[in-house]
Amino acid sequence: MDPLILSRMQFGANISFHILFPTITIALGWVLLFFKLRYNATNDSAWMRAYFTWVKVFALSFAMGVVSGVTMSFQFGTNWPGYMEKVGNIAGPLLAYEILTAFFLEAAFLGIMLFGFRRVSNRIHTLATVLVAGGTTVSAFWIIALNSWMQTPAGFEIRDGVAHPVDWWAIVFNPSMPYRLVHMLLASGLTVSFLIAGLSALRYLYGDRSESMWKALRTGVFTAAILIPIQIFAGDQHGLNTLEHQPQKIAAMEANWNTGPNVPLVLFALPDEAAKENRLEIAIPDGASLVLRHSIGGVVPGLNDYPGNHPPVFPIFWSFRIMVGTGLLMLAVSWSAAFFLKRRHSLPKPLAMLMVPMALSGWLATLAGWYTTEIGRQPWLVTGVLKTADAVGPVAGSHVALTLAIYLILYVLLLIAYLGVLVHLALKAAKDGDSSPLPGVMNAALSQPAAGE
Amino acid sequence: MTFDWPTLLPLIFAGLMGLAILIYVILDGFDLGIGILFAAAEDAEQDTMIAAIGPFWDANETWLVLAVGLLLVAFPLAHGVILTALYIPVFVLLIGLILRGVAFDFRAKVPSGQKHRWNRIFFLGSVIASLAQGYMLGVYVLGLDVGPGGMAFGVLVALCLAAAYAAMGAAWMIYKTEGDLQKKAVRWLRTALVLTALGMAAVSLATPFASPRIFDKWFVFPAMLYLSPLPILSALLFLWLWRQTFHLPRPDDRHSLTPFLTLAAIFALGFAGLAWSFYPFVVPDRLTIWQAASAPESLAIILAGTVVVLPVIIFYSFYAYRVFGGKATDLTYD
């Protein structure tokens, strides 16, 4: 096979595996801070039990994120040397600032957050939690800034064939950056709230009615119920921003072959790029015009305006629909669960059983969303500046294929182990309930009293 | 040579990158080394060994991200050339780092029956990552030579770097543990030191003979005179440390950090020698740091941030090490 497509698959596999874990740690850090602050305020040890259950998930997810992130930093060079040659002057500082302002902060204070509860004062431990949570968020800020710049580049000029920065403010806060950042942070919040709700529902199904389970369950369900409508609004705004700056992406997402007014909203279709038409189409008349232009006569860009310069239609048409569909399902599940928790103070068994697989709904929606926006940038690596095909390195296809196969096997095994540990931790917590041992006194010089003492 | 920004900035960044690599090799060296020594330890000892590195390894590995990051952002051309030439060893390194990084967490969280499996994976990952780093160093020293000779030399350096990391790990354990395990660590240190010395001698001899340019840099008068302290001091430190291993641990655990600091000093001397050999090239005999550097305005904006942030990073890293100072006890999430 050709090294270009293999390199794309390899990078896609790595970045897909990687994004699963930051998506969890970005928001989980803040949730842990919430648990910690509730404990500080109420002195209720159930909050601390919830903290200690979820801090283990955080530690494991963080480790998975770090090791897959290190992989990414090498792959820029091993697979895409042309990228840094062309836009290194812009991508470089953004990546450097991520490492300097976020990575070290997270890594240094993670140790204190995980293992330092009895070694530092409560205030320092809370501060360490704040710094780790803040670090993950700052990290997301820089990476989203760079990714958005690749989507909608601004603030630069080309001299001698190489991009040079002109206006750093315009580079960082490029047109799509604020929308993408908000969309991603909310996605992280939803992923974590569904993960917490789902694993707590699993504990519920196993008969766990402990206070720490209820606290985690309520936190997960109510956070999800609050975030999902905000996310739907933010996603819509992000879509309108894309319409303005990357119309060819919208045209492919909607599988709209011809520019014009009264464009229907396609619910189901098998887009056929060769024939330039949709097979088995089910559509709402004027729907796309209404959603995108807020009037049924609104003109929606079609693929005919971008011959040879638009992304592949089939994958992003479907990844977009998977994302939106998952989002709507999230809305239904989180609102009904919130209703039952608020009004009945219990959870119907079928709903709890649905919530368990929904624990991974955030991952599905996030991946589908990223596929939409990243495949939607093709054939460009940096829109209008650098084509993906021009950035690939000279490495032989066979090497890329071999390493890709091993990465894939490794990632599948690690995912199985990761999910196995999540279930194991949930079941263990379910078995122990409120009698799970809180950290005892381990060291001589301690600044923290054992919780509940 | 004129001292204007376009000349100075690549030089400063080469220095920063060298510093990041050196700190990485010393810090991640000891935790990789403890992974290598895992195979020789008993179950209960393994828990103590993990406790000796648990709070630190993540921050240690971040220095690798900074080093590669600086190569990527300051010398983008070199980043591409070096990493595409070392495609397979880099891949092996990454697999090793992935395996050991996740094994840290999995071994503590899986049902107890599966702990053994993750202990083995932790050992394997540490060995693989150390060997890959050594191999890459060997191939790089010979000017990215991937012929049979270069590969053989790479294998030699790989074994020696793994031994050097094991020595670092043992030295760190002398500092962080007590009792029988500490005595064991002293014996491990002695064995690993022999191989480390052998490796440093091999690299020191091979480097000048692999490249006439480097040969000329070392073996001309007066440079030879200025440089002679590097090998002589290294040899003296080796001999001194070797003798120390017969007297450790000292009563009241005095000087328990000395072996680690001595090894760190030896690493720094060896690194200075390499840096002198390759300067001004970032890709040996092909690209100088000025040819490979990013635009000065980009370097300037990174430098501005670095000057502010790096001292803060070093400060809070010290703080984190101090919080977990003293002998390692069982790690708990509290």
UniProtKB/TrEMBL annotation, chain A:
Its EC number(s): 1.10.3.-
UniProt cross-references to InterPro entries, sorted A to Z: Cyt-d_ubiquinol_oxidase_su_1
Any one GO molecular-function label of the UniProt entry: metal ion binding
Membrane topology: Multi-pass membrane protein
Transmembrane segments: 15-39, 51-74, 94-117, 124-145, 181-204, 216-234, 316-339, 351-371, 404-427
Subcellular location: Cell inner membrane; Cell membrane
Keywords tagged on the record: Cell membrane, Electron transport, Heme, Iron, Membrane, Metal-binding, Oxidoreductase, Transmembrane, Transmembrane helix, Transport
Any Gene Ontology biological process: aerobic electron transport chain
Gene Ontology CC terms: cytochrome complex; plasma membrane
PANTHER family according to UniProt: CYTOCHROME BD MENAQUINOL OXIDASE SUBUNIT I-RELATED, CYTOCHROME D UBIQUINOL OXIDASE
Family note: Belongs to the cytochrome ubiquinol oxidase subunit 1 family.
Name of the protein this chain belongs to: Cytochrome d ubiquinol oxidase subunit I
Organism listed in the record: Mesorhizobium sangaii
Automatic annotation (TrEMBL), chain B:
Assigned keywords, A-Z: Cell membrane, Membrane, Oxidoreductase, Transmembrane, Transmembrane helix
UniProt main location, coarse: membrane
GO MF term list: electron transfer activity; oxidoreductase activity, acting on diphenols and related substances as donors, oxygen as acceptor
Localisation per UniProt entry: Cell membrane
Membrane topology, from the record: Multi-pass membrane protein
InterPro entries, A to Z: Cyt-d_oxidase_su2
One record GO biological process: aerobic electron transport chain
UniProt enzyme class: oxidoreductase
Annotated TM spans: 7-27, 66-99, 120-143, 149-175, 187-206, 218-240, 260-279, 299-319
Pfam family, one: Cyt_bd_oxida_II
Protein name: Cytochrome d ubiquinol oxidase subunit II
Organism: Mesorhizobium sangaii
